[in-house]
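ping. complex inputs:
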Amino acid sequence: MDEQAVLRAVSRMARQLVEQNDGPSGLILLGIQRRGVQIANLIQSEIQRAEDVAVPLGTLDITLYRDDLIAIGPRPVVGESSLPPEGIDDRVVVLVDDVLFTGRTVRAALNELMDWGRPARVFLCVLVDRGQREIPIHPDVVGREVSVLPSQTVNVSVPEIDGKLAVDVVTIPMEAV
Amino acid sequence: MSVTESFIGKDLVGLEHLNSQQILNILDTAESFKEISDRKIKKVPVLRGKTIVNLFFEPSTRTRISFEFAEKRLSADTVNISSKGSSVVKGETLVDFARNLEAMRIDMVVMRHGSSGAAKFLAERIPSMVINAGDGSHEHPTQALLDMLTIRDQIGYIEGLKICIVGDILHSRVARSNVYGLLNLGAEVAVCGPRTLLPADISKLGVTVFQRIEEAIEWADVLNVLRLQLERMEGGYIPSLREYNRVWGVSRDRLDCAPKDLLIMHPGPMNRGVEIDSDVADGPHSVILDQVTNGVAVRMAVLYLLAGGEPNTAEDAKKGLKE
Amino acid sequence: MKRPLLIRNGRVLDPSQNFDSQVDILILDGSIAFKGENIKAPEDAQEIDASGLLVTPGLIDVHVHFREPGGEHKETIATGARAAGAGGFTAVCAMPNTNPVVDDPAGVGFVIAQATSAKAARVYPLGSISLGQKGNQLAAIGEMVDAGAVGITDDGNPVMNSGLMRRAMEYAQAFDIPVADHPEDLSLSGQGVMNEGLVSTRLGLRGKPNASEDIHIIRDLLLAELTGGRIHIQHVSTAYGVEEIRKAKARGVRVTAEASPHHLVLTDEEVENYNTDAKMNPPLRSSSDRKAVRQGLADGTLCVIATDHAPHHYDEKEQAFDDAPNGIVGLETSLGVLLTHLVRKDVIDLPTLVDRMSCAPARAFGIPGGTLSDGSIGDVTIIDLEDSWVVDKSSFLSKSHNTPFHGWDLKGRAKFTIVGGEIVWKLDT
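pong. complex structure:
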């Protein structure tokens, strides 16, 4: 997907979100560190453009909730979790991530969310669903479903980190597998 | 998910053998952990299922509590052992005691001990990770890390800053860890105190020595004022507490003579009216309570980084650094 | 009658007679009978082919701790005497700081009896200066000398009271024995556990300044001068101490002094990593002190090499540095260490080493040996100067393994140790 394709997908995701919730009020967008944060930003500005409402935005770093911390050895850098000042109690929290794969990241994010408060409802919104789930988790809003081989990976690029906005399917070189 | 550039090894024994990358890594990680202590539910599951023993052969309230908060906020299971209730005083050797703990399948030991080198001694003999919470007059690395985090928070940088440690340098593990850590990060470091409380050849570590507090105040950007152990009088190191306060005490009047405002730090617990006057300790440039807050974050960071450390020993880590 | 022993074709080096030549030595009935070329062996003689080996008067270590009675888990007189033999020593002087302290003739007799039954190196006891080494009143010095003590010392618990030290030096003169002192002002040493300096500051260990040793060296020299007595200063480790002894010797003070292998070879850097096998008293000092001790050894100011062999059980050393006891074993490493690190590096020559390890110690304590002159006791050490070996503490005959030299590559060691014409040690290769 090139930049145009991503933007089109984001715009549709924003519309679906607002539709399924009868308008943007009560919504909170939480981007999962790192690239989910930028996708959440894009969705927020899309809603702003269409509805003229600034949906509260936050970020969630799930590092400390991962289930593979000991196995991965060297410590990942811990990012920031920042929630809107009004909190998440009784709000509709929309978790935003770039790629949905095994579901483990979302599991961690849900656990962290429950430590922060008690949302009225949690939505899951991903730019790419590449399938191959290991945990029974299902997205509510999807930008694009792609089917890839286990030897392939889905790379989402965002301008803030990668200098461009795109989604690429890359084959992992054999020696790295 | 990016990964840290440098590991700190199996144990944290001291700062002398850590490089600036490793120290900055700990400070940066601590920065992220600060926010957890502000949450409503101050707990993340990162050390769930880990057993940590806080082994304190010397009485310590602050450090032990700070470690305990850090451990609990990371969901570890903790056991506190202090020398009064343990068999070590009954003649059991440190190594036997540690092996007994080890046999109960623990993951980490946080130890304070009256003998310099005790943390390293233990770290070389048990596979569990060892965090030095103060060994004799040697090092107290987490205290120095929280001091550095506080300086960085307040001033924004450490490199090139002039930091003077004031007081009983001879017996102070806090002083040594601060000297090593700050020099590693490129600060200029000085020490100030009566000659009886300065160790031999201290200047060879690369620090400036001031014998009078006035000179130190004129020179420094930051004063880290150490606690004066009251038993130093009986040891014949100083004539009296009153005299110590008159000559080396950090007072409002003295600070008013400084060319600029100084950041005032103290590792606690303070003897008000001895090494530091109350109006300084409670004054606008005192960051003593920020140090306490940062202590928990720094200790969480160290626990987190060690728990995911390489499965190698402290020895290997140090060899790697030397090469 | 003992079986005669003929040592053939060795390079015989005897500094006591300025003798250095390839000859045979015949030992008859425990004494050196004569030296010469192509000696005809008596019929029943045992022969040692010493071709390519160095034959010297038996080495003597005037400063060892054998721990018996009271510390038999660390060493016994028998294991210590065997370790001495393995290190090339034919005689040692045992310090009296056992439990109980050797402060009476019975204690002296016990050490001699144990040593006799060990059938290894000879063990000459030293008695204590003060009763129980408590520093209050003199021990039974005359009776101990009658029982076989060759000197007195409160090593391990040195005499702080200078008045008592003066009396000891005066009193000992009647028996012509040296008063050996471990020079240390305990109030200056305080809680120190190593040399005071940059390393102690870095490691956060409490230091002992050189001055704590120097002050008592000067005291001892002044008292020797005052009383005309013989003072033997143990394990000198400081540059200033060496210089003061040199000056005192020049003005005629009756002083002998020791250098220890560890002070000749190591510095306080060895304590790095809290190595308790580098913890001893006096502590390892700076490299400039080491240099001065080497110079003192070379010019004869420190005329005696003594190991201060101080065995400790492994779990006593397996402690935090502050808590570990002082001392290292030295009997089985000293010859190799000194041949490798002093002689091969031209700090001293071979005759000087043999003098400091054999001739001078015998003179300092008035004990037999230290010479191969005809008629003297048949104590001989045969050394292979070319034998390369690696120190392996697990192979020590000493009960204890507390050495900082484990794993060192050395060249040269004793091949035969002969006491009174009998082989007490033979290196198996």
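The two ends of chain A are 25 Å apart (CA to CA).
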